[in-house]
Amino acid sequence: HDQDLAKRVSRTVVISDGQIIEQYLARVFPSLTEEQLVEVTREIEPRKYSPGQVILHEGDKVEKFYIIISGAVQVVIDQPQAGEIVVASMGPGQYFGEVELLHGGHSIASIRADVHHGVEVVELDDEAFKRLAAESSEMRANVDRVAHERARENLTARGRKVHHG
Description:
Elements: H1 3-6, E1 14-16, E2 19-21, H2 23-28, H3 34-43, E3 45-49, E4 54-56, E5 64-71, E6 73-79, E7 83-90, E8 95-96, H4 98-103, E9 110-113, E10 119-125, H5 126-135, H6 137-157
Antiparallel strand pairs: 1-2, 3-10, 4-9, 5-8, 5-10, 6-7, 6-9
Helix pairs in contact: 5-6
């Protein structure tokens, strides 16, 4: 409860109604209320992926929202003439799966755990993610903005024109 002391520590744990709120949820979804954060904390599932393990294959149906806790992932697309292209790398506090969950469709790229260290994520099922997006227009707008940027990166990497609509 001492804010001056809290500023001097490297990790903050938020406790609400006796529940620890996952710190990455609070960072990724700053517009959610403590009540919403407690609820979503109860619904997340932690999972570790081995180095190089594919989490999502391009074209897969996406049924979860993933937040990276430690390690990293690579976003990979397969180009018929060029082979595999790493479009982006993401680390702790970043997320993926939002493009498909918000806009439908299948995975626009493959996602694999970092080939040297693997990755640890928390997974939130699509129903809980969509419920949160419906309850918080600010959260939905922020995630929509990121989803749009990622879709643009994907299209640019594939050499296609980006259409605004």
